[in-house]
Amino acid sequence: xxxxxxxxxxxxxxxxxxxxxxxxxxxxxxxxxxxxxxxxxxxxxxxxxxxxxxxxxxxxxxxxxxxxxxxxxxxxxxxxxxxxxxxxxxxxxxxxxxxxxxxxxxxxxx
Length: 110
Known about the structure:
The protein has one domain: glycerate kinase, domain 1, CATH 3.40.1480.10. It has three helices and five strands. The model has no long low-confidence stretch (mean pLDDT 89). It is globular. Helix 1 runs antiparallel to helix 2 (67-76). The chain has helices spanning 21-31, 67-76, 80-86; strands at residues 2-5, 39-45, 57-61, 89-90, 101-107. The protein has a five-stranded antiparallel β-sheet. Helices cover 25% and strands 23% of the residues. The longest helix is centred in the first third of the chain and has 11 residues, at 21-31. By secondary structure, it is an alpha+beta fold.
């Protein structure tokens, strides 16, 4: 398990984007994986809000990777719909605390 924390930012974010820094992180990790890699990734914001949407972040496994869809979502900064379709949104509701973003990458048997 690889664990890291700290606030994420999105370079070149667009006003019409839909998602947030944690979803962009998960999408970025997935875009570098092969579908048979035994890897799962989660990124979420402790305040329960990733960007301006209703999610705290997202999670996915390498076999969720769809290279064309990931590239399109990252280029447009519109990752929310992609993770909603995958069932990979983490929705906690507002926690009223903002300690840190947390990221976890599990490496092992799928």
